[in-house]
Amino acid sequence: MRRFPAEVLPEPGQELHLDPQTSHHVLRVTLLPRGSHLELFNGSGLSCQVELVGAKENLARVRGLTAPSANAPVPEIHIVLGLPRKPAVERVLRMATELGMTHFWPFVAQRSVAKGAHPERWGKLTEQAARQSGRSDLPRVQSVASLKEQLESLPSYLSRVVLTPGAAKGPDPTAPIALLIGPEGGLTPAEVDLAGRHGFQPRPLGATVLRSDTAVVAAIARFVL
């Protein structure tokens, strides 16, 4: 069943028009015929099934079939990432969303080459990944800030791990968790020290040095999945 985002979810029997962007995907991209059943999700964990009943002025009209309901809660996964180059950060957003990332905290690290943020593009990537992977919620993408600002903004209840090549092995923490990962070139000793003062425990990811996007996937797989 095709899945699409919607800010408002109808109750059973209720009809409403989808927003222009979603309507375009339903009517022009996927070319779904009248009578098709779709799933709508609102990005906050609720979803429902609807029927496409028509269109008016390029807006798809749907009728609710099932009541909006919540998926099973997922553990919080906070990714604190030193900004890598644009292709790498986009891969992180797609893959980490598929794996269950709930919060993304980008920061400009001392070794970051990329400096800028692309919130509209990042939002589209997480939305597409959530739709593809069957999620009804969307990760919360924070504004780019300094490492110090992001660490001070993290919820206090999180387990905290900083991924550091060569770090000693120790007991693995459990979710909810914050995983701190550097950009190309990794974190500097000063940044690792700053993380330690904010409760982060250094942990390795293996014997080899990983790209930042690979490290994010590997870290989620090791500490959460």
Summarize the structure.
By secondary structure, the protein is α/β, with parallel strands linked by helices. It has helices at residues 20-29, 86-99, 119-133, 147-153, 189-197, 212-223, and strands at residues 3-5, 15-17, 37-41, 46-56, 59-64, 69-70, 77-82, 103-107, 140-141, 159-163, 177-181, 201-203. Strands 1, 2, 3, 4, 5 and 6 form a 6-stranded mixed sheet that branches. It has a 6-stranded parallel sheet with strand order 9-8-7-11-10-12, with helices on both faces.
Q: Helix count?
A: 6
What's the story with the biggest beta sheet? 6 strands, mixed
Please identify which CATH superfamily of the largest domain we are dealing with: SPOUT methyltransferase, trefoil knot domain
Indicate the low-confidence ranges by residue numbers.
Answer: none
Helix amount: 25-40%
* Rg measurement, Å: 20 Å
- SS elements, strand count: 12
The whole-number mean of residue pLDDT values reads 89
Named at the architecture level, the CATH assignment of the largest domain is 3-Layer(aba) Sandwich
Cα distance spanning the termini: 26 Å
Strand content: 15-25%
Number of domains: 2
Q: For the record, what CATH class of the largest domain applies?
A: Alpha Beta
State the secondary-structure class: alpha/beta
Shape: elongated
H/E series? EEHEEEEEHEHEHEEHEH
CATH domain topology of the largest domain: Alpha/beta knot
